[in-house]
Each structure stands twice: as structure tokens, then as C-alpha cells.
Design brief:
- The protein is mainly beta.
- The strands form ten sheets. A four-stranded antiparallel beta sheet has the order 1-29-28-27.
- A hairpin with an 8-residue loop joins β10 and β11.
- The longest helix is centred in the N-terminal third of the chain and has 10 residues.
- The chain is globular.
- 54% of the residues are buried.
């Protein structure tokens, strides 16, 4: 299909134009051999875990555009007790209502499969039109801090050594303004302090809202109706202060409509690069020049557009070494009839889009994909791909019967041959039950060595999906602690060798959509109980090598220390 025709059809099928009947989706062949051996199962344990949260998106019939975007959540061990707690980002009503306003929510892990709401006592009963969350220890005091993004700017909360959170937005200089979406922590100049990158979407406020209609009834506007806004980069100056270096660093671009961001050293030069998923604008790749500046090379490296040279509605994003050979796979969630974009990242650009070849295109084609993440859910040593979906128009079925507001999530199993197979049905109803999916993150909340999933819908109750896979595969979990590098060790790369081969993982913030994953680094080992070696490249030429590690354990790896510290 020619580029112009493809773009025309994509725009016509955008739900805000809502009258286009889609053609039949491409077939999604199931790899029966893979299905016969998969052991991945999930169960929805939200109610028994004690969650009583219900997300508000502010919808009151005005059809304000932010109402469609949803919010995120985070797995974060805020009190350093070794168990992951849960942070949920809430929206708000556009005009105050009588009664208690919706707030952020923090749930403490009770270490027995249940959680307790500690929002008020921890100082996070804050109302805002929230969207995203990023987790990072920006002052290197050993406790993870939180940045919450939303319409009107971001809020920075300092962790008071696990006893509460203090709003330091005003004194930090990292709040900004505008419509902020996903955020990520990174040390882009490698000075040992975490900097902050914040995605911005469109220049919209309730006062500048444009009334939009579709077939005579009120509807949500298309992204094209509003001008874009530049992402922001804040340099950590130390002492709890940040400086806006967006323009000086080469990040400024007012055409952005950024929704997702991931950090990865794409070319292996030791400097963290930034990839941004844009909605109906070319995706950005900010190459780190190593001198405090970046160069945008999205078109040059082949990630800006689809394989048909078209812009897509980029939302969720993630990256992982999916072939265990150093080839990273970059996945970007898009709108219905566009499919997930998939770019194998070798050492040298240009990178070609390969979603059809690797098997991510057909399973995602009918859906609008937001939260998207790589993780080894069955611990077989190969990173799988999960994504959650949901339409933005709650009345879409009236104008297009082939589409639904709630949509099933999808789990793709990594076959180990560079391709993925859809195993959603065998993974259980917790995966396939439709949801208006938005935020998604992963983490092992009960420390049983299996990766769990947290889903945050556009509105309503979250879903905590417990991984109940039955297999004998082994695992290893590492908590990294930096000294000369940032305390989170974001940017460090772990290489693990067993008899079967080599795996690499990067410790990092960001990825998915508006959400923050478990910052520990998780490896599935398959049948390999014996680990030959583990090497950590901390950055700046610093490396640590570890041996004699037992499988099915958790370890803390501390920069500069030669012995891995077992975690009880």
C-alpha cells in the first residue's frame, strides 16, 4: 500500500472520525508447539490483595482530550523492606465536587499477598489530574523518590527515609508546566546524579479546549487539532535542585506529542540514548553525544516511521535483548489497524521495522496498545512481550461494530528463534478479560521468583495479576547499588552466563506507558541451575565480576564490592 493511502486510511479510522469499517485483520497463526509447552498462567488477585482504588479520569460529558489517556502505576519498595509496594496515579474532576477528592494511592506490601492503603500517613493524599510516575533516588540517600506527571505539570516527592513523602516540587525546579505524560530518570552526563526527562503531549487546557464532533455528536478531538509541545530535560544540579537544560542539550522540539519514553544505549558507546514514542508525529531518537548534548536521529536510524514510511499513534514503548545475542528489540504500541512497531537494534543504524517478521503485528493489529513491556514471564531465559489495550472512544461500537471500548490484553511468548507466539488464551482469563487498558508495569511482588503484572485502566479498579506459572525453571534476581554511579545504578548492564548461553539486562527507569517497573533485574534461567558468571558494567569502564552464585536466589550487587550479598 502506498504511503499516502496508508496514512489516509489510518486517519479515517481514527475513532474521532468514527465511521470507518475496518477490513479483516491479518491472520494470527498460533504456534501449536509453543502452546503445547507454555506454562505461563496468571490470576487476578486484586480483591484478595486488598486494593480498593478506583481511578477517575474526569469525564463529565465535556469530552476533554486528557480523559482518554488514562494513568499509570509503579512497583516501588519505598521503605526498603525487600518487598514491592504499589503506587497508583489518579485523575481528578475538572470542577471540584462535594465530598472527598480523588487522590494518588500508595499501598504497602504486607508480605503475605495483601496490601494496606497508607496514602494519607505517607503524605500522598494529593489530588491532581495525574498521568505518569517515575521512580528514582535523585539525591542518592538510599530511598526511592517519586515524580508524578499530569495535566498542569509534574510533582516531585522526596522519600523521607521510608517514613513519608514530602512535596519538593517548588524548591526543586523540576515541576514545569503543561501536559506531562511519561517520565524517566537517567544519568545522561554520568556525573553520578539522576537527571529527569519528561514527555509532553499537546498544548491543551480546559480554557483552550476545542469542541469536536463526529457525525453530529460530541466527540474527542484528534491529536492534530492541538499544537504539540516539547519534552523537557532537567539536569540534577545536586542539593535537591534541577536545571531545565532542554534547549541547551538539544532536546527542544515543539512538534512533539510524546506519550512513551525508554532509555537505552543503542549504539554501545557507553552513553544512554533516549527514544520517544510520539502520537501522529515521527518517533524521536535522541542520540547522546557524550558531552551533555543530544542529536535527534529518528529518521536517520529508521525508528521515526513505520515500514511504509508513515507516522503512527505511538504510545507504550519498551526494549530488551530478545534474542540473547546483543540484539535489542524495540517495541512501540500504536493505534488499531497499525500494529505494534518492532525494531531490531543492532550496532549500526539504520534499523528496519520488522513487526510482521517477528510476530508482533498480527496479534496487535485490531487493538489500541498502550502499556507494553518485555519480561521473562515463564523463566525460560527468553524475554516475552505483554501489552494491554483499550479504545479511547466509549461509544466506538455504535459507529464501528468491529471495535470495542474494552479490549483483551495479549501475551506473546518468545520462542527463542527471534519470533513470538500468541499464548494469551493459555495464560488465562486474567490476561484475556477485556479492559480499557492504559498503564502497565511488572514486578515480583511476593518474591516467589516469577514476574507479576499491574494494570491500570483508564478509569475504575486496577488489576493485580499474580504469576502462577507451574514449571521447574530457575531464576535469579539482582538489586544493584551504585556508589560512584547513581545509587539506583540506572544504566548499568548485567551479563549472565550459563551452559546454555548468555543473557544481558539493563537496569533502568522508564518503559511501558506512564508506569514504573520493578527496578530489580530479573533473569529466567530455564533448566540451568548452575551459573557460570555474572558481570556488571557499571559505566565509565567500571566492572564487577561475580561467581559461585546459587540459582533461585536474590542478591544485592554493590559497585566496588567483589562479593554478591544474599538478600534473605
Amino acid at each position: 500500500m502506498r504511503t499516502s493511502l496508508r496514512l489516509f486510511l489510518a486517519l479515517m479510522c481514527y475513532p474521532l472520525l468514527a465511521g470507518c469499517n475496518r477490513v479483516a485483520p491479518p491472520s494470527s497463526p498460533v504456534n501449536t508447539a509453543s502452546l503445547a509447552t507454555t506454562t505461563t498462567r496468571f490470576q487476578n488477585v486484586t480483591e484478595r490483595a486488598g486494593f480498593r482504588f478506583s481511578r477517575v479520569n474526569g469525564a463529565e460529558g465535556k469530552y476533554y482530550m486528557p480523559e482518554t489517556m488514562g494513568g499509570g502505576g509503579a512497583f516501588v519498595d519505598y521503605d526498603n523492606d525487600g518487598y514491592l509496594d504499589v503506587l497508583l496515579v489518579n485523575g481528578n474532576w475538572w470542577k471540584p465536587r462535594a465530598g472527598q477528592a480523588p487522590t494518588l494511592a500508595l499501598y504497602h506490601n504486607n508480605k503475605n499477598g495483601t496490601f494496606t492503603d497508607v496514602t494519607k500517613e505517607m503524605g500522598l493524599a494529593v489530588s491532581m489530574q495525574g498521568m505518569g510516575v517515575a521512580v528514582g533516588d535523585y539525591d542518592n540517600d538510599g530511598y526511592n523518590d517519586l515524580v508524578i506527571t499530569g495535566v498542569g505539570g509534574s510533582r516531585l516527592f522526596h522519600n523521607e527515609q521510608g517514613k513519608g513523602f514530602r512535596d519538593v516540587t517548588a524548591i526543586s525546579g523540576a515541576g514545569g508546566s503543561g501536559w506531562c505524560t511519561s517520565a524517566v530518570w537517567l544519568d545522561y552526563d554520568k556525573d553520578g546524579k539522576l537527571d529527569l526527562f519528561v514527555c509532553h503531549y499537546a498544548r491543551w487546557t480546559p480554557e483552550t479546549d476545542i469542541p469536536c464532533t463526529s457525525k453530529g455528536f460530541k466527540s474527542y478531538c484528534r491529536p492534530q487539532e492541538y499544537p504539540g509541545d516539547s519534552c523537557r530535560l532537567y539536569h540534577n544540579e545536586g542539593g535537591g535542585r534541577f536545571k531545565d537544560t532542554t534547549k541547551a542539550a538539544g532536546i527542544w522540539n515543539e512538534n512533539a506529542k510524546a506519550l512513551g519514553v525508554v532509555v537505552h544505549d543503542l549504539d554501545g558507546d557507553g552513553n544512554p540514548d533516549i527514544v520517544v514514542a510520539n502520537d501522529m508525529q515521527p518517533n524521536y531518537v535522541f542520540h547522546n553525544n557524550g558531552n551533555g548534548t543530544f542529536k535527534e536521529i529518528g529518521f536517520e536510524c529508521g525508528i521515526a516511521l513505520s515500514d511504509n514510511a508513515a507516522t503512527r499513534a505511538g504510545m507504550g514503548i519498551d526494549i530488551a535483548d530478545y534474542k540473547n545475542d546483543g540484539t535489542a528489540g524495540l517495541a512501540i504500541g500504536n493505534f488499531s489497524f497499525e500494529g505494534i512497531g518492532f525494531y531490531p537494534i543492532g550496532r549500526e543504524p539504520s534499523y528496519a521495522e520488522r513487526s510482521k517478521q517477528v510476530g508482533t503485528y498480527a496479534p496487535s493489529y485490531p487493538y489500541i496498545t498502550f502499556g507494553l513491556l518485555f519480561a521473562d514471564f515463564d523463566n525460560d531465559g527468553w524475554t516475552d512481550l505483554f501489552f494491554t489495550n483499550g479504545h479511547i472512544e466509549d461509544t466506538v461500537a455504535k459507529s464501528n461494530p468491529s471495535q470495542t471500548y474494552e479490549q483483551p490484553s495479549v501475551l506473546l511468548q518468545n520462542r527463542g528463534d527471534g519470533k513470538f507466539s500468541d499464548v494469551s488464551i493459555l495464560a488465562g482469563a486474567a490476561i484475556t478479560q477485556p479492559i480499557v487498558g492504559r498503564g502497565a508495569c511488572y514486578g515480583d511482588f511476593d518474591n516467589d521468583g516469577k514476574v507479576d503484572i499491574l494494570l491500570i485502566p483508564n478509569r475504575g479498579a486496577p488489576r493485580l495479576l499474580h504469576n502462577e506459572s507451574q514449571n521447574t525453571n530457575h531464576y535469579l534476581c539482582f538489586k544493584l547499588t551504585g556508589k560512584s554511579v547513581n545509587r539506583n545504578a540506572y544504566g548499568a548492564k548485567i551479563t549472565l552466563k550459563t551452559d546454555r548461553g548468555t543473557q544481558t539486562r539493563t537496569c533502568r527507569s522508564g518503559g511501558s506507558y506512564l508506569s514504573a517497573n520493578d527496578s530489580r533485574v530479573l533473569f529466567g534461567l530455564g533448566a540451568d541451575a548452575k551459573i557460570e558468571s555474572v558481570t556488571v558494567s557499571w559505566g565509565g569502564g567500571k566492572e564487577s565480576a561475580y561467581s559461585n552464585l546459587a540459582s533461585d536466589k536474590r542478591y544485592e550487587l554493590i559497585e566496588g564490592e567483589a562479593t554478591a550479598k544474599p538478600i534473605p
